[in-house]
Structures are given as C-alpha cells and as structure tokens.
C-alpha cells in the first residue's frame, strides 16, 4: 500500500506536461473537456490516496484499533515511515478541505457581488463606466456585463462578435470549468499548470463559436483585438469574478492568430501522434485511479487479517 499511494500524489509531475501538450493539439472544446476532466481525476485520486494513508495510520492508534476490534501488529505494512506519513496525510487533507471550503465561499461571494452590481431586466447589463471591459456573468438569468466605454470602442458589427463570444461562455457553462480547475488546484497544487491552458482553451472555444455565429473569422479576430487594445489602455480595468470569463482574457495575440490561420479543418499533428498522446493521458488517469483501488484493497485485506476474518 505504501508504494501505491504515492503514485496518485506524484503522477501530476508526468501528467501535467503531457496534458498541456495535448491541449495544444486538440480543438478548443475537446481541449477544455480534457483538461477539466483530467484535473478532476488527478485531484480526486490524490485526495483518496491521502485519505487511505491517513486511515492506515489511524487504524494503528489503540483507541481506533479497539473500536474496530483490530490487532495492530496484524495490519501489515509496518514501515517505520507509515505513522509520520499518515500524520502528514491527515494534515494535508485538513488543509485541503479548508482550502476547498474557503475557495468555494469566495467564488460564491464574488458571483453574488457581481450580480448585485449588474441588475438588468434582460440579458445585457450596460454599466455607465468609461473603463472598457465586458464579461459573461452566469446566474439566473445569465447576463453579459459591458460598459459604455467598451461599447464605444467597437463598431456595431464588432459588438455582435463581443456578444456572441460572451454568449458562448454562458451557453457552455465555462465558469464551471474554471471553478472545477481552481478547486482541483486547492487539493493538489501540482495541478496549477493546467489552469492557464484551460482558460486559453475556453477563450478559444468562445472565439470559434463567435466566428461561427457571425460567419466572419477576420471580423471576429479584429473585434477581439480591438476590445483587448481598449482594455489594455487602462490597466486593471474592470474587476470581475475569477471564474467569469471575458473576451479580453488570455494571450489575445495568439487567439487572433489562431482565428486568422485556422478553420474547421485545422492542420494538426498526425493522427497517430495525437492518439499516442491521448493514450498516454489515459494511462496516467488509469494508473492513478488503479493505484488508489489497489491501496484500498490492501488496506481492506489488512483490516480483515487484523480482525481474524481471513477465512471468510
């Protein structure tokens, strides 16, 4: 068990760079789902591994052993590092639980504050503000928050691109992808490397949706570029919830280049190479989940032996 529980904890060292490269080769929508799902699997596996490690140490405590009618010497895996490792695992679990609750409450607080400041009768909430910014604000109902400064920076057709981009964020529930990734990072800090490519994939997903809605990739690229330039003239303009997405977010030059040089038939690495990398990611996920299952089986078997139930 002591060997198996380390696999999910150390897997991000290998898996995160591979996932980042895979995201570069996948269409935006597929990349976003891959990164978000991978974050959930790795964070869940590492958390379960910590729980098993903490449980293995707790079962050796006399009060816990007596409660479970266990004989600690028969539990197996008597490595001298087990008890201190179990203590560290318990502390990590407690810290992770605290961080998840704090992050979840902060996300909820930010969304509530943004909605309270963006009351509107319809989808569009226009703020009388010279600072140029706009973002998608999910809720009931979903809203697009935009300032008069941003509206003046764009012409009529470019505004349609802006609205189509933000509608794509709302329709795709992109804020949930970001919220999930942020919570995964609180559980396993090594997953931090997936957050930036995920945010980029979500922006590219919305870019492609806007290009499809308007039927003009060049117009979409120009509107995104002009909106970003307008926002860049006022650094820090427009605070928004961290999980709310905006057309000006991320590496805008890279996004504009992608719109001008790609189409529905984007040139990508050879299919065999993409499949090989996808297979590697699948192996990483299966190894993490399988290691947790193996560790859980070993712990359960040890408990049965300590309870004298091996004959059953």
UniProtKB/TrEMBL annotation:
Keyword Thylakoid (UniProt): no
Q: Mind telling me which Pfam families this protein's record contains?
A: Peptidase_M48
Q: Which InterPro entries does the UniProt record give?
A: Beta-lactam_resp_regulator (IPR052173), Peptidase_M48 (IPR001915)
Instruction: Report whether Membrane shows up as a keyword of the record.
Output: yes
Query: What is the cofactor note?
Result: Binds 1 zinc ion per subunit.
Keywords in alphabetical order: Hydrolase, Membrane, Metal-binding, Metalloprotease, Protease, Transmembrane, Transmembrane helix, Zinc
Please report the stretch or stretches of sequence annotated as the Peptidase M48 domain.
111-184
Show the CDD domains listed in the entry: M56_BlaR1_MecR1_like
Q: Which cofactor does it need?
A: Zn(2+)
Q: What sections of the protein cross the membrane?
A: 32-53, 81-105, 276-293
Domain of life of the native organism: Bacteria
Query: Its family?
Result: Belongs to the peptidase M48 family.
What PANTHER family does the entry give? POSSIBLE SENSOR-TRANSDUCER PROTEIN BLAR, SLR0241 PROTEIN
The identity of this protein, by name, is M56 family metallopeptidase
């Amino acid at each position: 068990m002591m060997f198996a529980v380390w696999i999910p904890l150390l897997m991000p060292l290998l898996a995160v760079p591979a996932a980042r490269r895979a995201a570069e080769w996948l269409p935006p929508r597929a990349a976003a789902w891959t990164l978000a799902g991978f974050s959930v699997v790795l964070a869940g596996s590492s958390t379960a591994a910590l729980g098993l490690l903490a449980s293995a140490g707790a079962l050796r405590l006399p009060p816990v052993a007596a409660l479970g009618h266990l004989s600690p010497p028969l539990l197996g895996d008597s490595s001298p590092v087990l008890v201190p490792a179990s203590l560290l695992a318990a502390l990590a679990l407690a810290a992770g639980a605290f961080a998840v609750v704090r992050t979840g409450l902060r996300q909820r607080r930010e969304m509530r504050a943004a909605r309270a400041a963006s009351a509107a009768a319809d989808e569009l909430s226009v703020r009388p503000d010279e600072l140029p910014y706009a973002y998608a604000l999910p809720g009931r109902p979903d809203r697009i928050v935009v300032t008069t400064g941003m509206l003046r920076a764009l012409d009529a057709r470019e505004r349609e691109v802006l609205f189509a981009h933000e509608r794509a964020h709302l329709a795709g529930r992109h804020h949930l992808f970001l919220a999930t990734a942020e919570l995964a990072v609180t559980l396993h800090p090594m997953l931090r490397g997936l957050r930036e490519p995920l945010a980029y994939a979500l922006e590219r997903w919305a870019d492609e949706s806007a290009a499809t809605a308007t039927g003009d990739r060049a117009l979409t690229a120009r509107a995104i570029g002009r909106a970003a330039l307008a926002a860049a003239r006022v650094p820090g303009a427009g605070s928004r919830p961290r999980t709310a997405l905006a057309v000006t977010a991320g590496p805008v030059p890279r996004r504009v280049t992608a719109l001008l040089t790609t189409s529905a038939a984007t040139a990508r690495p050879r299919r065999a190479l993409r499949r090989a990398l996808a297979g590697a990611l699948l192996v990483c996920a299966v190894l993490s989940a399988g290691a947790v299952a193996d560790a859980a089986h070993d712990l359960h078997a040890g408990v049965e032996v300590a309870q004298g139930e091996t004959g059953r």
